[in-house]
Design a protein that fits this description.
This protein has helices at 5-36, 40-54, 57-80, 86-116, 122-157. The chain has 158 residues and is mostly helical. The protein has one domain. It comes from Streptomyces pactum.
Amino acid sequence: MIDGPYLVLTVLGVLGTGLTAGAFCAFSTFVMRGLAALPPAQGVAAMNAINTAAVRPAFMFVFLGTSVLTAVIAVVTFVLWPDGAAVELLLGSALFLFGSFGVTAAANVPRNTALLGLEPGTAAADRWPSYVREWTAWNHVRTAASAAATVAYVLALV
């Protein structure tokens, strides 16, 4: 079993990946469905407002802080290689860094940027259904990766 500072890092990893999984899960299960039910111009406006509000200290501290933390856990694990927990710690870190942070940077943020650039009206109406479908599909990946990272970190603690 891991202990000391390593225990603290891992517990914080559980908390951060779990909080992130929960936020992403909310979007996958009901937020995007609610937005998709709106007329396209309203859905685009609401999603743009959400995307703007997301880039605030509260969410960014959790999401980016967890990204940094999982990278630290991975590096410390490679250096110290704790008995019985290294695989779980490395797996949790990889799942979050690639499946959550990486997918956000490569798939969700570019879609958000493109959505922000749409003119209200016809362009929004034409692009909105595919945006919702594609963004949500990638968000499912982020949700599953974050939740799986949480499980991996919990398994490292037992």
